[in-house]
């Protein structure tokens, strides 16, 4: 596990400047980032009470204490256990005692289940509530070198998987069969979990998030393979295009335009430019070449402990890029009923540009 040293202290600094008394974070990426604890999402409440005055408490069901303690979170926050018959909301209220003067201002985890949030709101009348991501995004968007290193290892692992894919794509096999083999390869090449496997063949390749299914691969198919897993909690996410036999009509020209657009967007990455300018760098040439209406999603998403996180590379996002930000650049062209294609690399913003963590060739692989 990567622990980001001092992250809780920096969160407390942000709470001070944003006038938030405490963050209430359930299982998920924020909790893991701040404490190293990969908590299970259970019907029992697990909640980090991260206070601006740094008197943090981690409330866990009694049976989870061993896992919480083993994570090292106990060095950063007092672990408070709640028995099966105990009242976790009362434990939260008591962990918040003295956290603020007057009505509490609380930042609540964006993905905390409503069953817990509604209970907390009843137990803490008078408090005001906002999204914890207003604070945690400021930290998590800017990766430490240890985090970038984990993302690099994940990218190298998924590149090794893609290098094995063409041997698996044989006419007569189904998308689902190929998908199962790819999932195995994702683990064999050094990931600890499989996050997703998309194998979209023939017309299915025109559906960006197609679920690998019963369709049988056949000559003339374009195949989009978008796959990812995690290494030390950090994600890989890489798409390459494959063609079985001769490509369909119009495929080669479209792919050449896509490669150029993806390369232009990667080349545009550097500190000081906006997220939306990277989207435009991919989109404008595709629009100019007549494919604009077939590029039906944003150019990319941040990646880290979550597969999709900030910064989002999309029109309207004026966020200015800084070194250490990591995101995908994945333009695509999707012609309904015919074929689709996407090229996806993970890029890290460095001092004087952008570095692609995925380095495999980007031309379609002919099998
Ligand atoms: Zn996606
Ligand atoms: Zn992807
Ligand atoms: Zn992606």
Give the arrangement of secondary structure elements:
Blueprint (H helix, E strand, L loop, with lengths): L6 H12 L3 E4 L3 H7 L11 E5 L5 E5 L3 H6 L7 E5 L5 H8 L9 E4 L5 H10 L4 E4 L1 H8 L4 H24 L6 H14 L4 E9 L20 E10 L2 E2 L2 E6 L7 H18 L6 H14 L11 E3 L6 E5 L12 E4 L2 E4 L3 E4 L2 E6 L2 E4 L8 E2 L1
Parallel strand pairs: 1-5, 3-4, 5-6, 10-18
Antiparallel strand pairs: 1-2, 2-3, 7-8, 8-9, 8-10, 11-12, 13-16, 14-15, 16-17
Helix pairs in contact: 1-6, 7-8, 9-10
The structure holds zinc ion (3 copies).
Task: Pick out its properties.
binds zinc ion; elongated; 367 residues; five-stranded mixed β-sheet; alpha+beta
Describe the structure concisely for a colleague.
With about 375 residues, the protein is α+β, with helices and mostly antiparallel strands. It is built from ten helices and 18 strands.
């Amino acid at each position: 596990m990567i622990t980001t040293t001092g992250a809780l202290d920096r969160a407390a600094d942000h709470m001070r400047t944003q006038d938030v008394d405490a963050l209430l974070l359930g299982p998920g990426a924020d909790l893991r980032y701040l404490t190293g604890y990969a908590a299970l999402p259970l019907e029992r409440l697990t909640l980090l009470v991260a206070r601006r005055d740094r008197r943090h408490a981690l409330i866990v069901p009694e049976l989870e204490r061993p896992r919480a303690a083993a994570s090292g979170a106990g060095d950063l926050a007092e672990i408070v256990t709640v028995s099966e018959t105990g009242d976790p909301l009362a434990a939260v209220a008591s962990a918040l005692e003295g956290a603020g003067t007057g009505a509490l201002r609380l930042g609540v985890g964006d993905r905390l289940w409503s069953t817990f949030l509604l209970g907390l709101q009843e137990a803490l009348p008078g408090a005001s509530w906002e999204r914890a991501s207003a604070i945690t995004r400021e930290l998590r968007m800017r990766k430490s070198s240890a985090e970038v290193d984990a993302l690099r290892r994940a990218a190298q692992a998924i590149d090794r998987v893609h290098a094995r894919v063409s041997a698996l794509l044989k006419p007569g096999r189904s998308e689902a069969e190929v998908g199962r083999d790819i999932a195995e390869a994702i683990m064999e090449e050094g990931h600890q979990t499989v996050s997703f496997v998309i194998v979209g063949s023939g017309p299915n390749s025109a559906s960006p998030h197609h679920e690998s299914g019963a369709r049988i691969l056949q000559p003339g198919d374009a195949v989009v393979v978008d796959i990812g897993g995690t290494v030390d909690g950090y994600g890989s996410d890489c798409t390459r295009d494959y063609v079985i036999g001769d490509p369909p009509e119009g495929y080669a020209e479209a792919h050449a335009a896509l490669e150029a657009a993806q390369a232009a967007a990667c080349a545009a990455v550097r500190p000081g430019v906006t997220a939306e300018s990277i989207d435009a760098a991919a989109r404008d040439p595709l629009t100019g070449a007549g494919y604009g209406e077939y590029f039906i999603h944003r150019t990319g998403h941040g990646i880290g402990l979550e597969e999709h996180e900030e910064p989002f590379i999309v029109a309207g996002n004026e966020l200015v890029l800084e070194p250490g930000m990591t995101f995908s650049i994945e333009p695509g062209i999707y012609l309904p009923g015919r074929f689709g294609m996407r090229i996806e690399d993970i890029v890290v913003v460095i001092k004087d540009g952008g570095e692609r963590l995925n380095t495999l060739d980007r031309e379609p692989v002919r099998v």
